[in-house]
Amino acid sequence: MIVRSSGTQPIRLEQDVVLARQTARKVATECGMRLIDQTKLVTAVSELARNTMVYGGGGDMDWQVLEDVGRVGVRLKFSDNGPGIADIRLAMTDGWTSGGGLGLGLSGAKRLVEEFELDTAPGEGTRITITRWT
Predict the structure, then answer these.
(1) Is residue 57 left, alpha or beta, with left meaning phi > 0 and alpha meaning psi from -120 to 50?
(2) String of b and e for 69-80 (b: at least 16 CB within 10 Å)?
(3) What is the pLDDT of residue 100?
(4) Are 36 and 116 in contact (CB under 8 A)?
(5) Residues 23-50, mean pLDDT to the nearest whole number
(6) Which of 58, 47, 59 is nearest to 103 (CA)?
(7) Beta-carbon count within 10 A of 95 CB
(8) How many helices (H) and strands (E) in the chain?
(9) Distance from C-alpha of 128 to C-alpha of 105, rounded to nearest angstrom
(10) Rounded to an integer, what distance in angstroms lies between the CA atom of residue 37 and that of residue 28?
(11) DSSP strand E in 12-125: where?
(12) pLDDT tens digits for 102-119?
């Protein structure tokens, strides 16, 4: 696998959530992703960036454009140093929410991408890596 380009988008404020979505759309467009796939990726980014800011107290979205055996993809890693997720199984359950939302954030984001990795523990922050291929 080859990393063609990469960068970081800080997520500290509400405006940074918008910038994270814009960055994801730009990177997806540049690697030739179809509009429907761009939309799925940006929707997942919206959920994960907001979670990073609201629940994680802010963090970063690292992005990479990947090339692997004739296909191109976008990998995004959201990381924060917040309280972490105490019960991953519960947090990944459709309809469950720790706030006032619909409870579709993590499970919905997972359904919108081909690869989804979650690394978290109480007191150790959260790292979520997603990948969508063209």
Answers:
(1) left
(2) eeebbbbbbbbb
(3) 55
(4) no
(5) 96
(6) 47
(7) 8
(8) 4, 5
(9) 12
(10) 8
(11) 59-68, 71-80, 115-120
(12) 456 899 899 999 999 999
**Six-digit token pair at 92?**
């990944």
Cα three-residue angle 68-73-74, rounded to 5 degrees: 135
70: left (phi over 0), alpha (psi -120 to 50) or beta: left
Joined together, the tokens standing for residue 101 give 């939302």
Pairing between β-strand 59-68 and β-strand 71-80 as defined by DSSP bridges: antiparallel
pTM over 0.85: yes
Both tokens assigned to 87: 């019960």
Asked if residue 33 has pLDDT above 90, the reply is yes
Q: Identity (one letter) of the amino acid at 63?
A: W
- What are residue 117's DSSP bridge partners? 129
Helix (H/G/I), strand (E/B), else coil: 31? coil
Helix (H) or strand (E) holding 2: strand 2-11
Query: Among candidates 27, 118, 22, which has minimal Cα distance to 79?
Result: 118
Q: All domains of the chain, ordered by start, with CATH?
A: 2-133 (3.30.565.10)
